[in-house]
């Protein structure tokens, strides 16, 4: 199985999650991990799996991740298993009650990404997943690296 993980990351947390996934997939897949700025539709050639990872920013994926998806032609993911994950703030680490409310109700990046991947013809690989960071800059909350490794191992079926 050949897999591509494309991620964006400002403070390193989403990259760390992508690297955990790479490690977890190594026993059953040939994995390539690319920062979104280095990735384009050409990197999809010959891939069986595409995983997209984005920090949640203003309830959405980051602009570079959205642009990466836009560059993929219609049906460009036909025959490829796809999955999306995000990192997001652990609401328990937000002091302001109003901000906690906004974050809880605003939504996250993984679900819309997962939908867009399917719209491009991707086969559902895994349900969208979110991994928690402390505050805006992290680090990853305890146990999240392990949860990421377990999530992606679900592709080995
Ligand atoms: C401008 C900005 C907007 C953010 N918006 C959200 C949000 O809407 N929901 C959320 O859960 N986290 C939000 N966060 C927290 C980010 O999800 C967090 O910084 C990110 O997961 C860290 O990943 P990275 O280290 O890979 O950049 C925001 C952070 C910043 C700086």
Concise account of the structure shown:
The chain has 157 residues and is α/β, with parallel strands linked by helices. Helix content is 33%, strand content 22%.
- Mind describing the biggest β-sheet? 6 strands, parallel
DSSP strand (E) fraction? 15-25%
Q: Total number of helical segments?
A: 5
Please give the share of residues in helix.
25-40%
CATH architecture: 3-Layer(aba) Sandwich
The CATH topology: Rossmann fold
Choose one word for the global shape. globular
- Tally of extended strands? 6
Description:
The chain has a single domain (2-153), classed as Flavodoxin domain (Rossmann fold). Strands 1, 2, 3, 4, 5 and 6 form a six-stranded parallel β-sheet that branches. The protein is an alpha/beta fold. The chain is 33% helix and 22% strand. It starts with a strand and ends with a helix. The relative contact order is 0.22. Bound molecules: flavin mononucleotide (FMN).
Pick out its properties.
six-stranded parallel β-sheet, Rossmann fold, 157 residues, alpha/beta, 33% helix
